[in-house]
Amino acid sequence: MKFTPTLTFEGGRIRPLEATDRDALLVVYQQPELPGQRPLEQPEQLDRMIELSVQMAATQRGMMWAIELGDDASGYQLLGMASAYDWQPSLLKVALRIDGLSALTMANRAAVLCSCIHFMAAKYHLRNFAYAWVQGQSDAIPAMLESIGFRASVIMRDGWRLGQHDYCEQTLYHRILATTDTDTTTEANV
Question: Which InterPro entries match (predicted)?
Answer without folding.
Answer: Acyl_CoA_acyltransferase
